[in-house]
């Protein structure tokens, strides 16, 4: 039985909690959820689990794995602490690791403790192939992310285009994954996951578009190297609660948790 602590109880966090409680995440038990204001969740029944806004109470549970679904700031604040106290750290806001000092510090803490920083595929697919292909040589990895207008409200996109009048697919960013992770902390974490699997943050090329002609969140990955070539396109159904995030994010976390206790691991 694996004990799980969850940081963040928003769109992805609620679905992860539900998956654990319903048994979809394998042989694990949710022991604590860290939120910003526990008063808001006084009426939320989570069997056998404490919802708290006290970091001390949360970490006192010493879960086997801490799952983050709260954003870049939470990764900066808690990743190292979780690992140093002996938990694995499973991260969805993986773009936070565009900061090389954070990545070094956290991986070093994991190494020292014999624990792991775990990056589930979340909204993207094919990380297993890219990681295998990176055995090398791997020549090129590119990502194109396209999301409908509603996914870009409250993001950097609003500084570049008028979301109320846009009618055509419009390129709003072209650069590398280090920059895309910084510019879109809530929307292009996939670029960071891809970087960690493959060529790193500098060499992973990223394009981002606002696309008023689509309904789903679309990520296209292409890579080329000694292994051959791969092209992957995912079309994620956006969550109604947060259209930036697909349902698949929590499903992927549940699957990664299941792998921690399953005798059969795929991928
Ligand atoms: N790797 C990937 O493919 C993807 C990663 N993400 C990442 O996941 C994050 C969460 O996504 P959603 O659930 O859709 O966001 P959300 O905004 O619906 O939920 C985030 C929740 O975390 C809480 N929170 C923030 N800081 C906290 C802290 N320090 N302690 C406790 N709670 C805290 C917020 O109050 C909110 O309830 C996004 O910010 C994004 O960075 C999202 C989609 C895909
Ligand atoms: O859910 C998605 O399509 C991707 C996303 O928000 C991210 O990478 O941060």
TrEMBL record:
In terms of Pfam families, this protein maps to:
Asp_DH_C, NAD_binding_3
Known EC number: 1.4.1.21
Residues of the active site:
219
Protein's pathway: Cofactor biosynthesis; NAD(+) biosynthesis; iminoaspartate from L-aspartate (dehydrogenase route): step 1/1
Q: Where is the signal peptide?
A: none
Q: What class of enzyme is it?
A: oxidoreductase
Q: Does the keyword rRNA-binding apply?
A: no
Q: Where is the Aspartate/homoserine dehydrogenase NAD-binding domain?
A: 8-120
UniProt KW keywords: NAD, NADP, Oxidoreductase, Pyridine nucleotide biosynthesis
The Gene Ontology terms for molecular function here are: aspartate dehydrogenase [NAD(P)+] activity
- Please give the InterPro entries that the UniProt record associates with this protein: Asp/hSer_DH_NAD-bd (IPR005106), Asp_DH (IPR002811), Asp_DH_arc (IPR022487), Asp_DH_prok (IPR020626), L-Asp_DH (IPR011182), NAD(P)-bd_dom_sf (IPR036291)
Reactions listed under catalytic activity: L-aspartate + NAD(+) + H2O = oxaloacetate + NH4(+) + NADH + H(+); L-aspartate + NADP(+) + H2O = oxaloacetate + NH4(+) + NADPH + H(+)
Positions bound to NAD(+): 123, 189
Top-rank lineage group of the source organism: Bacteria
Q: Which residues form the Aspartate dehydrogenase domain?
A: 166-253
Q: What else is known?
A: The iminoaspartate product is unstable in aqueous solution and can decompose to oxaloacetate and ammonia.
Family that this chain belongs to: Belongs to the L-aspartate dehydrogenase family.
Q: Which purpose does this protein serve, as stated in its record?
A: Specifically catalyzes the NAD or NADP-dependent dehydrogenation of L-aspartate to iminoaspartate.
Q: Please identify the protein, giving its name as recorded.
A: L-aspartate dehydrogenase
Q: Which organism is it from?
A: Halomonas flagellata
**Which gene does this sequence derive from?**
nadX
């Amino acid at each position: 039985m694996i004990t799980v602590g969850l940081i963040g109880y928003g769109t992805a966090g609620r679905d992860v909690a539900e998956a654990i409680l319903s048994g979809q995440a394998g042989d694990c038990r949710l022991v604590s959820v860290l939120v910003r204001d526990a008063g808001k969740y006084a009426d939320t029944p989570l069997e056998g689990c404490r919802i708290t806004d006290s970091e001390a109470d949360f970490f006192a549970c010493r879960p086997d794995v801490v799952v983050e679904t709260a954003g870049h700031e939470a990764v900066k604040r808690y990743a190292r602490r979780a690992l140093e106290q002996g938990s694995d750290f499973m991260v969805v806001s993986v773009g936070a690791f565009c900061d090389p000092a954070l990545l070094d510090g956290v991986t070093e803490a994991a190494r020292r403790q014999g624990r792991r920083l775990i990056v589930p595929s979340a909204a993207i697919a094919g990380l297993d192939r890219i990681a295998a292909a990176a055995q090398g040589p791997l020549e090129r990895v590119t990502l194109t992310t396209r999301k409908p207008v509603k996914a870009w409200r409250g993001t950097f996109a609003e500084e570049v285009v008028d979301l109320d009048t846009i009618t055509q697919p419009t390129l709003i960013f072209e650069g590398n994954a280090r920059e895309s992770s910084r510019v879109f902390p809530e929307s292009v974490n996939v670029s960071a996951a891809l970087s960690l699997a493959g060529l790193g943050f500098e060499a992973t090329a990223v394009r981002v578009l606002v696309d008023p002609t689509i309904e789903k969140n679309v990520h296209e990955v292409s890579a080329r190297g000694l292994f051959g070539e791969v092209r992957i396109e995912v079309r994620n159904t956006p969550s109604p609660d947060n259209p930036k995030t697909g349902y698949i994010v929590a499903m992927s976390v549940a699957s990664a948790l299941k792998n921690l206790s399953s005798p059969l691991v795929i991928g």
